[in-house]
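**Discrete fold encoding**
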Amino acid sequence: MIIGLPKEIKNNENRVALTPSGVSELKKYGHTIYVQASAGLGSGFKDTEYEAAGATILPAIEAVYAQAEMIVKVKEPIAPEYSMIKEDQLLFTYFHFASSEELTQAMIARKAICLAYETVEKNDRSLPLLIPMSEVAGRMAPQEGAKYLEKPMQGRGILLGGVPGVKPANVLILGGGVVGTQAAKIAAGLGAHVTIMDINLTRLRELDDIMPANVDTQMSNTYNIREAIKTADLIIGAVLIPGAKAPHLITRDMLKEMRPGTVMVDVAVDQGGCIETCKPTTHEDPIFVIDEVVHYCVANMPGAVPYTSTLALTNATLPYVIQVANKGWKGACLFNEELKRGLNVVKGEVVYKGVADAWNLKVTDVNEVLAAAL
């Protein structure tokens, strides 16, 4: 298969979808890999390293799209890329369609095959290609929150861990999944008082067993959230419904109940956000303030630590990329149910219910689409 690796052009996105070692593994199976010049520089990988691994370097992004049967990316295509995407071309990347109707309609119109990292799902309901970036974002969230709690950053002027004789900050984490667990570890390690909320009592029991003494668990409901935000210094949104919009657990009216300088980090923003007032921001301009509450809503948080993120992502994605390259997208999805669940849009048809529900679109059975494609 001919595989294309374009440079990410989203604001301050420095990750790359394949490392030179990933290219080397694909070459073992006889695949052709075209890499856009400087695609890996942001993550610390030179063009010469890709060439040594067996890739061909192309000067422009248009050439990569024109040559490739499968495009492997990190983030969803943005508007300048839409016209480059060919009918029947496979794109394997994070899409988060439920947060962007424009992107959804563009991919339907291009009649591409859209295989989304975030909905590749194992039988135990875990999300193997989302987990590594959730781990990175979860660990970053308290770091970013701590920074924006500083007074020059418009925060309350509180040190997350406090000092002897002064209480630490209160951190509220909404969601006890991968992001929430990683966020709790870091916040607790910095010395904060942490409360994790979740609707799953079994998960809360598990967290209660493994977390240190400065982490409490609490059932998530509107009443408990409203009470907790009154004394929270840092709120981290870590809610995920695979492939669908995140629910708004903090609504616009709740901001009035928070103290001035409270910081909210919505890690769920790339799925629409679990905080109603959040909208996607960038590393270049990461925050905005509403009702004296600081909102940090960067949609590609792991892009700020691209070396770590690229290695972690390739570790997870490469086995799936190899399967798709070896068998073709149809063969791979028929062979592997996990990959089949990753199909979101196929040749103009929406085949993932969460995406269809988000934009009131017709959903087509994925098995019918696969059968018709054979």
User: Anything to note?
Assistant: The chain has a mean pLDDT of 96.
